[in-house]
Design goal:
255 residues; two-stranded antiparallel sheet
Length: 255
Amino acid sequence: MAGALAFCFQPGESALHRFDPRLKTVSLLLLSPSIMASLPAGLAVFSFALVAFTGRAGLDWKAAVYNLRYFGFLLAAVFLSRAIFTPGKPVLVLGPVAFTDLGVFSGALFCWRLILVTTTGLIYAATTHSREIRAAVEWLLSPVPWIPEKRVGVMVGLVVRLIPMILDQAGKTISAQKARCVECRKNPYYRLTHFALPMLRQIIKRADQLALALAARCYNESGTPPAMIIRPVDWWGAGAVLVLCLIMIRAVFIP
């Protein structure tokens, strides 16, 4: 499970760990679109606030960066596609490929946004237990008619629990491939099929085992949620998040 550490809950006593999960979930829902709509000035303010508030959370950032190292390929692809195909003044020409000024700016800005959204989500997952996430989802959906909030909460809680399991199984499958020298095969279709099919087989098998274990324990969606109390400091934290969101989107609506 070490390979999935970035997506696992990490116990702690920091302010982020003690932050009410309901307000924390609402804060995440507000921050994500605000980050994607923000301009560089707002992103800089949020980046500074993110470093300041998470410095004492005790999270293993080195392991998180290592586990998300392949995320850099996605960022590189996004940056190159925007830098090359966005119209603008060429700033670097490499044969038939030209990097434009607007493309470089747009690619860097979009990658910055993706990094902040991903980091915010990881902080939420690392400081919020799955049962608290389930309770927060049920609380948010309870006023909405015709939606079974308890069932949705159970599904979200299981997804949070299963993501580390899926990543762990992917790591085991890759290790098994290396032991059998599958990575030495040049045919990408052969490598992909011999990675995806065994991994999917094991994931489905473990999902069946989980369903049988829940049924054997008479598990149902009407369990007692954890006790949650919103403290005054939680309201202050939610207010700080709201202020950050307003700062980030201010430049979008005000010329």
